[in-house]
Give the backbone structure.
Amino acid sequence: MPSPEHAASLERLLSRAAAECESKRGIWFGRGLPQALRIAIDLHGEGATQAPMEIAFIEVSAVSPQGRALTNADPPALDCPVVGLSQSTFEQLGSLVCARGDTGVQITRLICPFAVFDFSPEGVRVREVRHGLTAADLQKKMSTTLWSGPDLKELGTH
């Protein structure tokens, strides 16, 4: 049975990911965490369809600063934003977002229990951070430069 902390982290992750689906009907779900997200959305009566794709979700194990993600998913050729999901902890951030090659699935956003990151040619930008953490706390764990701005929000208050 998962610990209360693990259950709370998973709930925070799935709730935030579900918010990405608002007003979208064409959603592709990869294996693992995205399937838990699909079930949560279906349970709330939101029901997604399979096409045309507006957003896709994959579970990731590592992401380069350029947004190339290692995943066990094999998404079809998608012409929509791909969002990575990870249950990694704050302590694992350095191995989650790390310098690596340019292979893998290109993602635009990564949602974790402690933060939401966007990936672009300009680099990694933190958009939301869990209560009690700051962008500076995240930067200390990362080997790449992290960008943040005045639009940084508390996780889940998008």
